[in-house]
């Protein structure tokens, strides 16, 4: 007769599969370097650029208009001879005020300054 082997339960050791999770190391925090701020230099603010006033709405004196035209176009105030010359052109000769700009732009001083020749 055949012998039956008794059913012995063999304890099987089952190793549980352990999932290895990768260890993520956090990147080191960036080193905070001391940021040295240079002291602010005092800067001079540029004076607002003057513009030639519209002669129609201009309510100032003629001498003021001539002065502004010289300051804008030649970067200087007019001398007494120039003031007298432009005043005579307007009051005596009847030259319209905007023509002062044309006369100044035709001057050698303006053309030398801007490099343009009319």
Helix-strand makeup class: mainly alpha
Strand content: under 5%
Mean pLDDT: 74
Poorly predicted residue ranges? none
Over the alpha carbons, how many angstroms does the gyration radius reach? 46 Å
Order of helices and strands: HHHH
Share of helical residues: 25-40%
**Overall geometry:** rod-shaped
Distance between the termini: 134 Å
Number of strands: 0
Q: What can be said about the biggest beta sheet?
A: none
Oligomer: single chain
Count helical runs. 4
Q: What does this protein structure show overall?
A:
The chain has helices at residues 62-74, 80-91, 99-105, 108-114. It has four helices and no strands. It is mainly α. The radius of gyration is 46 Å and the shape is rod-shaped. Helix 1 runs parallel beside helix 3. 33% of the residues lie in helices and 0% in strands. It has a domain at 63-113.
Write a compact overview of the structure shown:
By secondary structure, this protein is an all-alpha fold. The chain has helices at residues 62-74, 80-91, 99-105, 108-114.
